[in-house]
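Regression test attached.
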Amino acid sequence: MQIYLPIAEVSINAFILLGLGGIVGFLSGMFGVGGGFLITPLLLFIGVPPGVAVATGANQVVASSISGVLVQMKRKAVDFRMGLVLLAGGFAGSWSGVQVFAWMTARGQVDLFVQLSYVLFLGLIGGMMFIESSRSLLRARRAGAAAPVRRAHVHTWVHGLPLKMKFRASGLYVSVLPPAAIGAVVGFLSAIMGVGGGFILVPAMIYLLGMPTKVVVGTSLFQIIFVTGFTTIMHAINSQTVDMLLAFLLIVGGVIGAQLGARMSTKLKAEQLRILLAVLVLTVCFKIALDLLLMPSELFSITPVVLP
Amino acid sequence: MIRARAAMLLLAALLAAGQARATEAIVTGLSQNRVQITANFDGSEILIYGAVKRDAPAPTDAPLEVIVTVEGPSTPLVIRRKEKVAGIWLNRSSVTIDAAPSFYAVATTDKLDKILSGTEDLRHHITIPHAIRAVGISAEAANSPDFIEALQRIRLNEDRYRVAEGTVQLAEETLFRTDVALPANLTEGNYKVGLFILRGGKVIDSQERLIGVRKAGLERFLFNLAHQEPFLYGVISLAMAAFAGWAASAAFRFMRS
């Protein structure tokens, strides 16, 4: 069943869109990532113009994140206090990211800049997660059931910082400065890369803040809702590139996928979950790197000029 | 005396030419003169038909040929070329084109180079290279033939530009018809239909008709809302997302209990 999208101005099979939304929603619910780094390349691949893909992708991520966060809330696996601290940093970072993005656009190399940041951050985080989680998986296997438990309360210089706050859901008593800083970095990167930032946030919360894995997914989703919601509104106002019909179809697929994914995540071990996410992140990174390194079959590209 | 006779001859020749022009003229019809883009729009096929009107018996010196062109609204474009820099392929040079048709189709009764002379093509902008140039090319672009060639190549691959030789059916040198399939990814605006009848490479008569392509129904409503009330549109998009997220969660909870 073909459907004509009013803003994207293309006609695409509705079931393909439902399926795409479903797959990305499933991953979103399972790993606590928004899925922005997947949905945008996939939409481009099926012929949606880049501007519409980025903006509508953000809108879809809002829905699947809400759907996922509600499941996590029932499980009491959302640290709202931590989420709000991350968010405060996130808005500041996002604002400055938009400024840098505008500056790069004026210099005409924003595409390359975005692609390079994708390769760099996806590669770095995917690689780190892959090594760490496969190591702990091996260790767990060797030691049998009595695997050493990761201690969250290793005291470092981080714990000497002022403005300490109790994060009950995470079982942490740390300064608000590190989470706010992480939120700011994520906000900055998400403004530049056009993603929610979950794939950066999840490992940062686990490895840098020492939060227990069970609250990480819900807290990450909670923060992503607001960051992508902000992005959607900004795009709707500045460039009118949010396609509501496209978003609707992706969302219907996405929310169902997110529910299934969130349930699936309880059946897998934390290490397995992390290793799968690492493989996914590395695959996307590899694909973008190949695009940069291999000679394209068509050297020329046509971009319609957006009239101011 | 001689001058007067020469003038008479010239006048006679002009009259004859005028009559020759008038002896064959196009009468045309379109199956529809507007296309509405609705939610289930999946391209549209337009039947373009017509007849040749004559005051005198048809000339027999050269066969009659028909060319039909359909040109979509033009938009400005940037064409970029990738080059390898330090092992990475990136966009290095670009050329801006003020206006290039978003869609262009040529349908004919026979091979274009056989039925259309170069000068007539130049005058009536029938083939794709001339049609693109006619719309508007900046000095910068005119000096970069590679880029113009790439524009044609890419759009031909995308089926936005088409040459369909031999798809106009002509009966008894009088009645002709052709179908032009408009693609699903149409740009809104007026589509110009050009009709030409030719003999011996020369255009005898031509006509232009318009097809209005407009979004309708839900498509129209969403498009207008997005452009006239962008903030409201953004908020509605978010509200829809929030509601859908909640509804799915509630539905699954209900199903499990």
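Expected vs. actual: identical. The CA atoms of residues 75 and 141 of chain B lie 15 Å apart.
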